[in-house]
């Protein structure tokens, strides 16, 4: 009996050490999708991140090809400070709250973009999110995945173009209250870790009732479902307390419809935007400085491939490259 107990204890200790590097998820740390997640042995954790967006590109030309890429001259860079906190609610679930503060920079005058710059300090839309573990990994079967259900709510509180708060430098939000749900599969025990996550986002209808153009009022705005797919591979160098992950993000935003009314004649019309598709690749390097402290470095290449990918070809979307560094602290 004592020998069996010793063997079980050793296995648990070994699994606990391994789990620190094996536990993650396909959507963990991929751009801003999920900046903070809690491992099973963590109850309260905070995240502090800095990121820089650059190389803004637009896909699509009004009245022309929807896949042609050209430089976005309205905004040149965005710097973000991201603060998040996570709390474990049960053995298999936790919630997180994320806030963002930003600095946008672009030309002061679009007609003469080389003459002077404009800087705006803004706050982003907060995100309340949660995850629930349906299935956990285990040493008894290294090919059994971790399966998580995930959900989030993002209210529209940041300045945005739907509410006509200004141009690209003056705004940051998409203007919609949104809820997201999805599922995340992660195989973290094999030597080559891999995973896939699928999310669906629903946008609530808006009634901005503001001027859209001369003599036209935007009285309603809707957006169809948004689909986000994340594919991830990685490897944990356990002896070095270091891990690498890389993957792709496929983001499809369905049609957005603008309902317009002529203020003089009361005639109504509709304007259709999209659908839009963007494809990004990302790479993360994570270093466990101590059992409580983690450093993460990541880079995301927006609009990574300009060629023809059929339904997944970049189109009618604005993309940018993102470099980020973050520090995570587990308190208990």
Automatic annotation (TrEMBL):
Signal peptide: 1-24
Keywords, alphabetical: Signal
Full protein name: Autotransporter domain-containing protein
């Amino acid at each position: 009996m004592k020998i069996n107990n010793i063997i079980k204890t050793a296995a648990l200790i070994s699994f606990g050490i391994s789990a620190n590097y094996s536990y993650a998820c396909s959507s963990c740390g991929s751009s801003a999708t999920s900046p903070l997640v809690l491992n099973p042995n963590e109850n309260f954790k905070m995240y502090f991140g800095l990121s820089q967006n650059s190389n803004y590109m637009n896909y699509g030309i009004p009245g022309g090809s929807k896949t042609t890429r050209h430089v976005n001259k309205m905004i040149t860079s965005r710097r973000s400070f991201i603060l998040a906190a996570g709390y474990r609610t049960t053995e298999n679930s936790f919630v997180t709250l994320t806030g963002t503060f930003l600095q946008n920079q672009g030309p002061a005058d679009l007609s003469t973009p080389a003459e002077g710059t404009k800087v705006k300090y803004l706050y982003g839309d907060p995100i309340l999110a949660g995850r629930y573990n349906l299935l956990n990994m285990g040493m008894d079967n290294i090919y059994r995945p971790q399966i998580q259900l995930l959900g989030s709510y993002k209210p529209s509180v940041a300045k945005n173009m739907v509410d006509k708060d200004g141009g690209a430098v003056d705004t940051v939000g998409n203007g919609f209250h949104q809820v997201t749900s999805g599922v995340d599969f992660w195989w973290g025990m094999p030597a080559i870790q891999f995973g896939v996550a699928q999310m669906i986002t629903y946008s609530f209808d808006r009634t901005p009732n503001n001027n859209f153009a001369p003599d036209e009022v935007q009285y309603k705005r809707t957006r169809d479902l948004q689909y986000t797919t994340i594919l991830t591979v990685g490897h944990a160098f356990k002896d070095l307390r270091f891990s690498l992950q890389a993957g792709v993000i496929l983001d499809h935003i369905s049609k957005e419809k603008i309902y317009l009314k002529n203020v003089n004649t009361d005639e109504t019309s509709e304007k259709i935007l999209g659908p839009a598709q963007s494809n990004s690749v990302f790479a993360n390097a994570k270093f466990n400085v101590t059992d409580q402290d983690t450093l993460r470095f990541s880079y995301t290449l927006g609009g990574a491939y300009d060629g023809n990918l059929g339904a997944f070809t970049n189109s009618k979307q604005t993309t940018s490259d993102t470099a980020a560094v973050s520090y995570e602290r587990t308190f208990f």
